[in-house]
Design a protein that fits this description.
The chain is α+β, with helices and mostly antiparallel strands. Strands 3-2-5-6-7 form a five-stranded antiparallel β-sheet, with no helix packed on it. A five-stranded antiparallel β-sheet has the order 10-9-8-11-12, with no helix packed on it. The mean pLDDT is 90.
Length: 277
């Protein structure tokens, strides 16, 4: 009795304190594509605008994707020299969580990249032109009225836009000027708009909204048709508007594949054709 109570007290006092500071490599998100043999740990993203499992730390982007550095220390040297901008702001944190639609700029090489998914749900290294790097799209996740009585909206990347137009509602997309932070344009969520799935099994697929199923108390479902006529369904929270639909193109440029998912056989045939050509 006495021994067991002593043991219980010890276990109570040695519990974990505060937020976790490490991330095991095997527990890192699949879309980071880290090899499981090269170490025990992975870079744990800092708290920031995007969720841990939906972001890409800057160290992985620079070292593993662009291969501008061989190791963590070299990446640190690049960032600490204030060479990297995310959405027009200098970021020196190696574990800064860059996420969907973020613009990563490297003034020294005059390069701009937008984090956007390929058809397999991974962040593609998608190079963009300087004109396109001046704006980003943001999905409205919350809308409200402040204590001061003015309208505001909160976007998927954590930014709050005060004095927003009252017609902007949740699930709409706003085009944000990265220099001023002002809304340049709005796309309402309605049938026919061009969307990209940003979560779930269809992540990275692009198509036009066909219809929306309302399920009060549960998840609303959106049916989407891509440019090949293939249809898929996903939750409303998983879709992100990238264009006004109709014959209009996407507001942002898309990576290779244009958001059309191919079967494994189709991918193989395309590879063989490319080899023969």
């Amino acid at each position: 009795g006495a021994d067991s109570s002593f043991f219980f007290q010890r276990t109570v006092f040695t519990m974990a304190r505060g937020p976790k500071k490490h991330l095991k490599r095997l527990n890192a998100p699949r879309h980071w594509m880290l090899s499981k043999g090269l170490g025990v740990y992975a870079p744990r993203p800092s708290t920031g605008p995007h969720k841990l499992r939906e972001c890409l730390p800057l160290v992985i982007f620079l070292r593993n994707r662009l291969q501008y550095a061989l190791n963590y220390h070299e990446t640190k040297m690049i960032l600490k020299q204030r060479q990297i901008l995310v959405d027009g702001r200098v970021r020196t944190d190696l574990n800064f969580p860059a996420g969907f639609m973020d613009v990563i700029s490297i003034p020294k090489t005059n390069e701009h990249f937008r984090l956007i998914f390929d058809t397999k749900g991974r962040f593609a290294v998608h190079s963009i032109k300087p004109e396109e790097a001046k704006f980003k799209l943001a999905k409205v996740v919350k809308q409200g009225v402040s204590e001061g009585g003015f309208n505001y909206v909160v976007c998927h990347d954590g930014r709050t836009i005060p004095y927003a137009d009252p017609i902007i509602k949740v699930n709409d997309t706003v085009k944000v000027n990265l220099e001023t932070g002002r809304v340049m344009d709005t796309v309402k969520f309605e049938p026919g708009v061009l969307v990209m799935a940003i979560r779930g099994r269809n992540s990275g697929r692009v198509g036009h909204v066909v219809s929306t199923e309302r399920h009060p108390g549960s998840f609303d479902i959106v049916h989407v048709k891509d440019s090949l006529g293939q249809t898929f369904a996903t939750r409303l929270v998983n879709v992100f508007i990238i264009g006004k639909g109709g014959k209009e193109k996407s507001i942002v440029s898309l990576p290779r594949g244009k958001g059309v998912k191919l079967t494994i056989a189709e991918e193989r045939d395309r590879r063989l054709k490319a080899k023969q050509a």
